[in-house]
Design goal:
It is an enzyme of class 2 (transferase). This protein has about 625 residues and is an alpha+beta fold. It is built from 14 helices and 17 strands.
């Protein structure tokens, strides 16, 4: 049984031909987009929240510094008030006054020194030796004290006594009569502030500086090379100082330092806004853990998405695709006619695939049963057709036997020849039917063997009338159908009969050859040649009434061929007719028992049956009905 090969549609990743795995991967990918995007947004939101907390912590650190300074100033007021009430300090001079001042600030690093100033601004007593001639009468803080202010805080100044930057706090020194006799002052040095912040920020990348209200650096940071400074540019600092002066709050911002490192900076006021502290920490150091957290928050959904894709890919491959591929091979076997194959491996597949495999098994059983029915029916039909051909051949042989019985009683030679010609025509049809029921296909016969049998029957038919006429056949082993074999066999019979009848009238023997050659893949050439007396072309052209010639022309028309007759050392009949090449797939089993009575040499080409007949003449019609 022949079956067409099923060609599966090519699969792709997109479009209508996309496979199951790409489609499911796409569906899972789309389904994972929402939770993935939500996780990314949450990571970004967490990063922003952490950054705000970081900025708040840095601002709180700066504000804590300012708070410490406020507490320190408040503590200095209490110390000054206590000193102003002591008799030794009120005396304003002498060793007892110095010892009282030293005891008051002893162990307090934030205070660089304590002093007593008289009404003219001259230093009369100090906690440490002083230079001679030091006068602060022009200082604003002293003027405010002498004007009656109970507690005064100076601006950022350079101490004339100590020669360092700092802030002075002072209270008036009042006698028993309530008259202001001078002031008691404490000096808070900026060196202590610098040490205080550097001790809490040990890393080299941390930026720290004290600024005045104009943005000028008033700590040791000013001595560092500008190219190495961790502070931002002056214009950026001044911009944020102006914002602070307007809002009065700690400012945080990000900027690149002179050393090229991005930092997070905070500016906070100290000592009532007289000076400012600027703190900066590298962004990478500050937000490194945050960036890692964000990266993990972004990477996690991507990892989950990749794992889901991998699970879907391998899960579909294990649970679905490999079973579909297996069932596809099973159906390919069914398409090739191998209905005995069963999908036994699907017993380990999921229930749905197993149910599909069972359906395939039932389908194969039905196909096998239907094929057996069709095969039995076809065998019965072949038997009937063979029986028909066999009966037709027997009937034709019976007719030939009757003609032979009648021919024995005839004494007229002309009538005897007519009977012999009739037997030859009937024998050609009988030979055709015998070859058909002996063939396997019942629709095709081998051209060479058919002509061999036909010529052998003609030789035995008594047409030679005792003359020694040799009949040879040369034809290719090609298959032809009955619609070509019938007119071809009758045509050969008529041509050979005419040769026996007319070519050797004055001779005891001769030679007749029947040759079929393939001229092209679409046509065959039949040549029947004898070495007899030949014929007169002019007389033959005028006389067209011969029965043999009429039958030959009718058979040529049935073959849709071209007839050419000429005299060339005898008579040559050539017929060129269409017969496309067709490969003979099978040869019937009865060929091995055929005895070739003619000496022919065959080719190896094979051809299909010819085209259907067109406008049959009366003689072929009588042949078909017979």
């Amino acid at each position: 049984m022949k079956s067409a090969k099923i060609v599966a549609a090519s699969r792709s990743w997109f479009g209508r031909n996309a496979g199951l795995r790409p489609r499911l991967v796409l569906i899972v990918g789309v389904a994972m987009l929402a939770p993935g995007a939500l996780a990314v947004l949450q990571a970004i939101s967490s990063y922003n929240s952490s950054m705000r907390i970081l900025e708040q912590n840095l601002a709180q650190a700066a504000q804590l510094s300012a708070t410490e300074q406020v507490n320190m100033i408040s503590a200095s007021r209490d110390i000054l008030t206590s000193l102003a009430a002591q008799p030794d300090v009120r005396a304003g001079q002498g060793p007892a006054c110095r010892r009282a001042l030293q005891r008051a600030i002893g162990g307090l690093d934030q205070y660089a020194g304590a002093s007593v100033v008289d009404a003219k601004g001259n230093f009369t007593c100090a906690s440490s030796p002083t230079r001679s001639g030091v006068n602060v009468a022009d200082r604003q803080w002293f003027i405010s004290v002498m004007s009656g202010d109970g507690f005064v805080i100076s601006d950022l100044i350079v101490s004339r006594w100590l020669g360092t930057w700092g802030i002075s706090t002072a209270v008036p020194l009042v006698d028993d009569d309530g008259v202001i006799r001078g002031a008691v002052a404490l000096f808070i040095g900026l060196d202590w502030l610098t040490r205080r912040y550097h001790s809490s920020n040990q890393t080299d990348d941390t930026a720290f500086a004290l600024l005045d209200s104009q943005g000028e650096i008033i700590t040791g940071e000013a001595e560092r090379s500008p190219a190495r400074s961790p502070l931002p540019r002056r214009d950026i600092v001044n911009e944020h100082l102006r914002e602070h002066l307007q809002g009065g709050q700690t400012q945080t911002f990000r900027a690149r330092g002179h050393d090229g490192v991005w930092r997070l900076y905070a500016i906070s006021p100290l000592l009532g806004g007289r000076i400012f502290v600027i703190l900066g920490t590298p962004v990478l150091t500050a937000i490194g853990p945050l960036a890692l957290q964000v990266a993990w928050g972004v990477f996690t959904p991507l990892l989950m998405w990749a794992l889901a894709i991998a699970v879907v890919w391998f899960g579909i491959e294990h649970l679905v695709v490999r079973w579909i591929t297996y069932l596809e091979r099973i159906t390919s076997a069914y398409a090739a006619g191998r209905h005995s194959v069963r999908p036994e491996r699907v017993s380990a597949a999921p229930a749905e695939i197993r149910s599909l495999g069972e359906t395939f098994s039932r389908m194969a059983d039905l196909l096998s049963a239907r094929e057996n029915e069709l095969r039995d029916s076809l065998a019965q039909k072949e038997i009937l057709v063979r029986e028909i051909h066999h009966r037709v051949k027997n009937n034709l042989q019976l007719v030939m036997s009757l003609l032979n019985l009648h021919a024995r009683r005839i004494r007229d030679p002309r009538a005897e020849v007519a009977f012999a010609e009739a037997r030859s025509r009937i024998n050609a049809l009988a030979t055709l039917h015998r070859r058909l029921y002996e063939s396997e296909s019942l629709q095709e016969i081998d051209l060479r063997w058919f002509l061999d049998d036909l010529c052998a029957e003609l030789r035995r038919g008594g047409l030679s009338r005792g003359r020694n006429v040799e009949l040879n056949v040369e034809a290719p082993s090609e298959v032809i159908g009955p619609d070509v074999a019938v007119p071809l066999g009758l045509l050969v019979t008529e041509a050979i009969t005419n040769a026996y009848k007319h070519a050797f009238n004055e001779r005891d023997g001769g030679h007749i050859s029947v040759r079929v050659t393939r001229e092209s893949p679409a046509s065959l050439l039949l040549t029947i040649r004898d070495d007899g007396t030949g014929f007169d072309m002019a007389a033959s052209t005028q006389d067209q009434s011969g029965l043999g010639r009429s039958l030959i022309e009718a058979f040529v028309r049935q073959l849709r061929g071209e007839l050419e007759t000429r005299s060339d050392d005898g008579t040559v009949v050539q017929v060129r007719f269409p017969a496309p090449v067709k490969t003979a797939e099978k040869k019937h089993a009865g060929h091995h028992g055929v005895h070739h009575h003619a000496t022919g040499h065959g080719a190896t080409g094979m051809a299909p049956a010819g085209a259907p007949t067109a406008e049959p003449s009366p003689a072929p019609e009588r042949t078909k009905s017979a």
